[in-house]
Amino acid sequence: MTDIIDGNAVAADVRDGLGAAIGTLTDAGHTPGLATVLMSDDPASETYVSMKQRDCAEVGIESRHVELAPDAPAEDLYDTVDDLNADPEIHGILVQMPVPDHVDTRRVLRSVDPAKDVDGFHPENVGRMVAGHARFKPCTPHGIQKLLEAYDVETAGAEAVVVGRSDIVGKPMANLLIQKAPLGNATTTICHSRTEDLAAHTRAADVVVAAAGVPEFITGDMLSEGTTVVDVGVNRVEADTEKGYELVGDVAFESAEAVAGAITPVPGGVGPMTRAMLLWNTVKATSEQTGVDVTL
Ligand code: NDP
After folding, report:
1. What's this protein's family per the entry (predicted)?
2. Domain-embedded: residue 295
3. pLDDT tens digit sequence for 103-150
4. Which residues of the chain fall short of a pLDDT of 70?
5. What pLDDT is attached to residue 251?
């Protein structure tokens, strides 16, 4: 029997678990506050940001949204981040990526106060995570750790393969998997578009994390019996639906499910966890900035 890893259920548990901490902070006069900044008219980015605001409202986190025209001067974005850095009611800042080409992405990432960098993308926070004392773990890999934990997937001593080496998913995921901390200790291989014979790597893996952004390209014949498959991919493919498309992962679900020991679906797997861990990081940020202790 293959376990279908239910990201919606685990994410709901994470959100429930935050309730007491948010209550404590709010009672102490420090309602957690998350700012989202959008400088794009890409419908997917707009959807992501509005989902994050809805998530905040559900758990009692204040959200503030700042929207900038995609053709606004880059300085407007830098100034917005500076203002939010200085605002004591804002504990977490999320600049929705990608930003337009005329904006210096690295400058934006560097300009967010590391204490409010709930995405975990500031170089200081990346460094802290790599050094093994993370302040904020990036939301997607952190969410995957929580999923694996919830389903008792043993990573210690396991062979893990991460497909994809992006700064937001692949690299931090691999980094968390190799750490000595609980939920780590895996022997970890990172694959990418220049990897020779990807299937040889994935077949040797006990845990495969697919984060390449290529629709359904990890197939059952690339996996071994009993492997845990985590599908990060969210790909729009044309389909005969009302919207004209559907979302699929990087994994061909049916063929992989026939082989895997456990597998995340798309949607309903990693996506809800990414959102839940943003709330988690915002609560942690609030606690650290205000000095009000909470249990997370
Ligand atoms: P990027 O495009 O930044 O990185 C993709 C990585 O996959 C690159 O390292 C690339 O290699 C590698 N890759 C591409 N094609 C292949 C291939 N055929 N074989 C092996 N490796 C390949 O993507 P992201 O990391 O930002 O996102 C990955 C996917 O996850 C996307 O579908 C994205 O939408 C989704 N996503 C989902 C989230 C969620 O919450 N569910 C959150 C974030 C992302 P190279 O470096 O050599 O180019």
Report:
1. Belongs to the tetrahydrofolate dehydrogenase/cyclohydrolase family.
2. no
3. 999 999 999 999 999 999 999 999 999 999 999 999 999 999 999 999
4. none
5. 98
Q: Give the type of residue at 41.
A: D
Quote the tokens at residue 221: 């014949």
pTM given for the model: 0.97
Q: Is residue 241 part of a domain?
A: yes
Looking at the structure, do residues 38 and 101 belong to the same domain, yes or no?
A: yes
Per-residue pLDDT reduced to its tens digit, 148-182: 999 999 999 999 999 999 999 999 999 999 999 88
Residues 110 and 150 reside in one and the same domain: no
> Per the domain annotation, does 38 fall within a domain?
yes
Is 292 exposed, middle or buried (CB count within 10 Å of its CB: 0-12, 13-18, 19+)?
middle
Pair (74, 36) in one structural domain: yes
| Active-site amino acid positions | 52, 96, 119
- Residue closest to 49 by CA, chosen among 39, 59, 62: 39
Can you tell me the distance from the alpha carbon of 38 to that of 98, in angstroms, rounded to the nearest whole number? 9
Q: Spell out where 53-199 has E strands.
A: 62-67, 92-95, 159-163, 187-191
- Does the beta carbon of 265 lie inside 6 Å of ligand 1? no
Find the domain containing 43 and state its range: 31-116
- Can you give the pLDDT at residue 66? 98
* Phi and psi torsions of 152, nearest 5°: 55, 40
Annotated binding residue at 50?
Answer: no
Q: Is 196 in the pocket of ligand 1 (CB under 6 A)?
A: no
Nearest atom (ligand 1) to Cα of 213: 32
Q: Is 274 in the pocket of ligand 1 (CB under 6 A)?
A: yes
Residue 159 shares a structural domain with residue 36: no
For the CA of 195, the closest atom of ligand 1 is: 20
* Number of domains making up the chain: 2
Q: Name the residue among 221, 210, 222 with its Cα closest to residue 251.
A: 210
Residue 185 lies in a domain: yes
